[in-house]
Amino acid sequence: MAQSRLTAMRDARTDSAAFRAALHELTTMLVYEAARTLAVEHYPIQTPVAPTQGTRLANPPLLVPVLRAGLGMADAALALLPESSMGFVGLARDEHTFEPRAYMESLPVDLAGLPVFVLDPMLATGGSLEHCCRLLADRGCTDIIVLCVLAAPAGIERLERSGLPLRLVTASIDEGLNDKAFIVPGLGDAGDRQFGGM
Ligand code: PRP
Fold this sequence. Notes:
This protein has about 200 residues and is of the alpha/beta class. The chain has helices at about 1-10, 15-35, 70-80, 125-140, 155-160, 190-195, and strands spanning about 40-45, 50-55, 60-65, 90-95, 100-105, 115-120, 120-125, 145-150, 165-175, 175, 185. Helix 1 runs antiparallel to helix 2 and helix 2 (about 15-35) packs across helix 3. The two termini are about 30 Å apart. Bound molecules: 1-O-pyrophosphono-5-O-phosphono-alpha-D-ribofuranose. The site of 1-O-pyrophosphono-5-O-phosphono-alpha-D-ribofuranose has 23 residues, from strand 4, strand 7, helix 4 and helix 6.
């Protein structure tokens, strides 16, 4: 199922509305996968028949979509994790250096003890996600799960080298990057494909 949504996103003929729908559905699957490791707690409830133990998340994660492209993952993640709060980071990659430029940051001051799900469809060179995860670690976060649709080997290596306390959940590891640091075969620019070119 995840691979069929990913195929729709890769196909250049897919229009923006269908691309957003496929990203929404795929994000539900990624969040479901990532949420397996979240701690739960039990508490007493009463069914119509008998008392029993209920289960809930002990510590719902903070959701952090990376603008713009990560915005398309925010609704699906919040639908599955309605108790979660949301923070935002805005990053744009420089066309020439491929390094991220931060233009927005709205995060809780103290993230100690709170798991964080970072939402960004693309891990290319890894510069953007390394920057974002460093912001989170600087606020005391020690439990970061990055949710990506696509990852390039170079980006994975960069995150590994960073030493940051993170894990990655992705639907695909693609072949590599082209000379514009786009993922190959990839799906193009996830921000443009959802929201149009700037
Ligand atoms: C894309 C993508 C990632 C980043 C990946 O965003 O959504 O954030 O590039 O590249 P990297 O791993 O090489 O850093 P972009 O900068 O195009 O901004 P947008 O989401 O506003 O389109």
